[in-house]
Amino acid sequence: MTEWDKMQNNLIYNDFDADLFDRRVVAKKLFKEFNKTSDDEVELRREIMRKLFKKVGERVWLEPDFACEFGKNITIGNDVYINFGCTILDCGQITIGNNTLLGPNVSAYSANHSLDAEERIIGALIPKPINIGNRVWIGGGSTILGGVSIGDDSVIGAGSVVTKDIPSGVIAAGNPCRVIRKITDNDKVGFVLNQ
């Protein structure tokens, strides 16, 4: 089993493997090319995203400067907006659901190096998937750690560090991030689109 195969199966793998290094180089070339594009180069951006990500939905808007580790472990749904400065370390699978918003400088780290120093310095890494649900809003400067799921319709306050699962339909914030309250009809502000 290759180190990439181990990674895909959420098994401990050697982070210093030569094949993984080469895969990172490919991803860096693609996201650096993406980051040089301008807003009017929509088709070029879409083409690069299709090459970079495992799967990318329709109407995805990704702002530069974006960075990721492999790209091929990232799945993005439809109608997603990812603001400036997003960093995704995708050794574990990372899924971003439909109609989800990521604020500026949001980071998602699915990497978990070994806590033991001897293992860590020779490359022991454990991938832990991240699942961000549908219609989620992640506030600017938030960090999402490996092994975390964020339920549909939830809001993560700016600057949060999400270390544990967050249920659906709540506002959560802080370091560590914790549920503050449920989102209710009282949170509506009366906005409607003019038809």
Briefly note the structural class of the backbone: alpha/beta
Largest sheet: 7 strands, mixed
End-to-end distance: 56 Å
Strand count: 20
Per CATH, the architecture is 3 Solenoid
- Contiguous low-pLDDT stretches (5 residues minimum) are none
What is the overall number of helices? Answer: 4
- Side by side, the strands of the main sheet go 3-6-9-14-17-19-20
- Looking at CATH, which topology would you report? UDP N-Acetylglucosamine Acyltransferase, domain 1
CATH superfamily, please?
Hexapeptide repeat proteins
Give the helix/strand layout:
Elements: H1 3-8, E1 13-14, H2 18-35, H3 42-52, E2 55-56, E3 61-62, E4 67-68, E5 74-76, E6 81-82, E7 87-89, E8 94-96, E9 101-102, E10 107-109, E11 111-113, H4 117-121, E12 124-127, E13 130-132, E14 137-138, E15 143-145, E16 149-150, E17 155-156, E18 161-162, E19 170-174, E20 177-182
Parallel strand pairs: 2-5, 3-6, 4-7, 5-8, 6-9, 7-10, 8-13, 9-14, 10-15, 13-16, 14-17, 15-18, 17-19
Antiparallel strand pairs: 1-12, 11-12, 19-20
